[in-house]
Fold this sequence. Notes:
With about 150 residues, the chain is an alpha+beta fold. The protein has one domain (about 5-140). It contains 2 helices and 6 strands, in the order βαββββαβ. Strand 3 (about 70-75) and strand 4 (about 80-85) form a beta hairpin. The longest helix is centred in the first third of the chain and has 19 residues, at about 20-35. The two termini are about 25 Å apart. The mean pLDDT is about 80.
Amino acid sequence: MFEPGNYEFGLKTGDLSEEEMIKIFKKANRKVAKWLHDSRIPRGLNMLKCTGPFGCSTPDAPEPEYDHIYRFSHSCSNLFIELYPNQEKNGFVKFLEDGIIWNLHIILMEGSYKLSEDDHIDEFGARVLEELFQMLPCEKVLIRKTALGEDWI
Length: 153
């Protein structure tokens, strides 16, 4: 389902709480890390809850005003995720489609961490995303997708 590239999804989470959603992220990571059984990928989720300042999407765009953004990555994985609210503190809504509460920005890179032919670490990112999308009980709206190396504006 997931190939290397940049993805942006709107999540229509309804009454799913932020805490419940983060538990789902942690559970998906834990399940795939257990399957992979590789010391380079910790079973605990390496997710940071960051507060601003946040970067602008273009040089002339105003800086986003989020309370926080969750950032997920592992040093030896091909996956980077940002989870952030669809509405900023100043009232600006990024995606206008009704029901989108959270935005999920995903970067799935080409694998390059294999130590041998039977090393499965390059499968980590795609498997985590598959688990995550199966576990999240909400509608996921693909907003945009680009291949690696294409402009992401």
